[in-house]
Every structure is written in C-alpha cells, then in structure tokens.
C-alpha cells in the first residue's frame, strides 16, 4: 500500500545533497510512481544527474500549482543515526529533508495520486524542482522553457517555517513574502613580512578582526511595512510603531519568535566565512570574508554597499555579489480566504492562519516576480519546526496526513 510516510522514507534514502544535487534520481522515483498509478508525467533534464519532475491532472481555465524541491542540504554532524536512513519510528519519518522539503514532495505526490479519479474542472500541476538550496536552477529552467505549464493562478509551496504556539493557540503561518538575499565580500589588504618581526608587515587578519568588531555595533534601520505591522497584530495582538518595536520584540520570551520578528523588521548581516594568510611564519597580506545579507523591501545593492562601508570602515573593501530583491504576494485576497477556509476544514475549526513574511528565501520569489501569487504552507508539529537544516530532522506522520488532506481539499475547493 502506498502511503505518504512510505514515499517520504523512500525519498529520504535518495541522497540528493546539494551540492552536487543528484535530484534526477528523485525525479525518476516519482516518474516510476506516477507511471504505476497511470498519471502522465515527465522528467525535465537540466544537467548530468539533475532535473525537475512535472505532472498535471485535469484541464480547464483555473490553474493551481503545487511546488516543492527535491534537493537537500548536507547531513552534517550530531545525528542519532544515519541521516539518510529514512527510518520510520515513534510516529516520525527521520532523516535529512524529512521537513525541508521532501515531506512536502511526498504529500503533493500523494495528493495527486488520490485526486486522479476526480473530475477536476481546472488544471492541477505538481512540480518538484532541483537546486532550490542553490541558485534555483530548477525553477528558473521551468519558467524559461515551460512558461505555459508553470503559468498558473496560484502556487502552494514551502516556506512558512512551521506553526507557532502562542499562548493556548497553534497559529499556522502562511508565507506570503520573503526578504531579499544579497551576497557581499569583505577584503582586507596588508603587507607580508617575516612572522618574527611582525611590525615590519601589515596584518590583514588583524584589520579584518577590527572591522568585524566595528560591524557588530551596526544598527540596521527598522522598517515597518503595513504587512509586518499586520503580522505583529495577528501574532501578538500588539500595535507596533518604529518607536516601540524593539521594546515589543525584546519582551518576547520565545527566542525563536523573538529573533524571527527582529529579523523581518530590518536588514541582517551575517559574516559566515573567513579566509586569510598562507603560512604560520608569514604576516598575512590578505583576509576575505563572505557575508550573507537579507534585505528589506526597497533596499538594493547601492544601499547595502553604502551601509556596509560605513559600518566596517575604510580599511575594508566591500564587494557586492549576487542580489535578489524581496518578494510579496497579497496578505488578503480570495486566494488567502480559500487557503484559510481549507485549513479550517482539515485542521481544527478554530485554526488560525496568519500571513507572514519569511526571513529566508524559497523558489516562490521567482514566480512572484512573474506576478503569480505564491503562499508557503507548512503544517507540522510546532516542536519539530526548528529541525530544518539541523541534526535529527524528522517529520511526524500525523502532520503528513493533515497536509495531504489540505492539498486534496484545496484542489477540490478551487478546481471542482
Ligand atoms: Zn526548502
């Protein structure tokens, strides 16, 4: 018997770690599954070992897309067992990608299998893409080469970071927007000399260290969009202004919620790699860092460069790399009402769904740029939502069922 947890367990065992990817094997697994169930589908090859999976059900004016991705981040350390075992134990499917994002791949695939006999009056598309954890090569390829198949009214994707427990309530999050992503590089230059008389040289590592200390004092501007104001109201029942915002954020006890709300109200700057020097007895003449920057709406390369140059001082050369601006779908629309209504049908009657802006980026940003409304819905146990990209990632089977149910009902509600 085919089940969501069975599919997920199989998918986790396929080691599609990006880099290098190897998502083709996932696409082949899905193709085989759909072939056996008699649903037409295809694999779209992109490069050796990499590709997307695409399937459709029904035909008609209305078009709905279920999106997910098939690559995962490396296993990393600290696991209780093999992160690619896909083992099912204690009501969970364990392993890398169980939440991000193979859990959703499994539910979307299973929903299509369940819907195959229904007479949908519109088209339901399922796309499982490669390289979401990289540059989004998979979704970009679909947008460029399959615009008709990917051109839809509404997209359901990952991205909501799981529900929050606020007081007695479980609040499901609906990701309606994302911060922008910018990569920057810091370079410090010095003068090489013998390590025994360091004063004859100019130490680039020391320069970088001083600059990073200065950067730690940088206070990014607080930006309060109407959407973020609404989020605070929905999540905390608090009216925030630029003046009281930090006070409100600081008073939140739950660290995850507190730092999330801090992150979505300002640009964040995180220096995540550093490299300098070549030998222990030589004063280093260079030091470089890679910097992960997440920007607010309206902040562009020029703004970031200016802010960083002010923050690190004149001894550091700031280089701006790739940039993708923030993206947003309407917080309130007939689509969001449909999503909320469907959630109430499958979860509890009093289920609250709050639209949010995410601190991280997903494939939705590329589709939002085409004007397609995208919403990330992650229905899962609140206690496991912080295991994304972490050791002992696992997905509870109960949530898999609710999530599949949600996807089936949403397609029925919209397309029947
Ligand atoms: Zn993901």
List keywords for this structure.
single chain; 416 residues; alpha+beta; Aminopeptidase; Alpha-Beta Plaits; 17 strands; 33% helix; 25% strand; globular; binds zinc ion
Descriptive overview:
This protein is an alpha+beta fold. It folds into 2 domains: 214 residues, Zn peptidases (Aminopeptidase, 3-Layer(aba) Sandwich), CATH 3.40.630; 147 residues, Alpha-Beta Plaits. It is built from 13 helices and 17 strands. Strands 1, 2, 3, 6, 7, 8, 9, 14, 15 and 16 form a 10-stranded mixed beta sheet that branches. A 4-stranded antiparallel beta sheet has the order 11-12-10-13. The protein has a 3-stranded antiparallel beta sheet with strand order 4-5-17. Strand 1 and strand 2 form a beta hairpin. It is globular. The chain binds zinc ion (ZN). Zinc ion (ZN) binds next to loops.
